[in-house]
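This entry is listed below:
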Amino acid sequence: MAQDTRRPNAIRGNRRLPLAGEVLKGPTYASWETTLRCNQSCRFCGTRAGHARPDELSTDEAIGLIAQLAEIGVREVAMHGGETFLREDWLTLISAVAAHGMTPCIVTGGRSVSADMAKRAKGAGLVAASVSIDGLEVTHDHLRNVPGSYQGAKRAVRELLGAGVMCACNTQINRQNMREIPALFHELSQFPLYGWQVQLMVPMGRAADEPELVLQPFDLLDIMPMLARLRLLSDQYGILLWPGDNIGYFGPFEHTLRDQRLPDGHSSGCGAGILAIGIEANGDIKGCSAMGSEGFVAGNVRRHRLRTLWDEAAELKFMRCFDDSALWGYCATCYYAHVCRAGCVWTSATILGRYGNCPYCHHRALELLADGKRERLVRVATAPGTLRDRAEFSLESETAPADWVGRMRELNRPLSK
């Protein structure tokens, strides 16, 4: 799944959530899946990208959408796919975003990005790009299903930087690459990147067919200490390590990861429909482009004005008007429930079928660890093979091995200052 290129222009959150019927002025950040056409076949792709959808927005429709994004207050547009540059009009879209006073960015797998493409993108107004690199060479090429993909991605970084485009990288963490993340950072730190976004793989779309890649909830006890140490190292290189919305929440490393990245120094839950808006390639509108389609599409830009959808559609307002009764399972009992609101909606809804109970939570894993327990996901039904589909998982609690408990407790001690 493509990831955000840059953090949205963050504002200090209002602790009083809007009540039902209240109108938020508008999002500042749009994540736009411009096409599902792709030149890779990633094992973790949440959309099963490869071929363009038959009903993708035309150039005129896309330019009309861009105008409406500007009208509702969007300041930054991150275009992804698939691969945005496989649209014949990709430079036109970049130029249109810039012409409307918004910052155009792209997220790319980087395959086949040439010096000429990078220069033309810069000339069209491209400000920043995030290149997806998901492990060391052998692992990355396996995950991307394309030999040479790793070298192509690194070449894309060089070409974009050479053209004067700000460049970051992004990485999806899964069970195959999680042990390589520190070594991968060493490789990425050779570039003058402005940032590195990391997020957890979510088993949606093609990723639902890869059970060996699916993280277990207790893997966060390995991942979070690792990311906290990498964040301290990344500061030395001047690279902003930006944890994606499904990384957390509220363990001993929360402030280490987010102290200068969010106004309150900690996660405040899912931002879908609050500061962000998502667009599918066919013009369907959601709170976040990562979300599944079923139950989260507010309407289509071909039939509705964005302003109307933002102000009125329940599918865009449910996090603005969050009701604690939506919480269930462990999250309904959690000390941080009123702030976290069960974290990333995409993650919880994909794994367990509905949002409000997120098993990928560091605090939750630590609380279970204190009792010598851990949770395990077991796939009980496969995905049907459609866009943004999901497999079915059961969440089982088990007694953790004593030696593992001891190691995890030691590993998750707060970092010394």
Q: What stands out?
A: The longest helix spans residues 220-237.
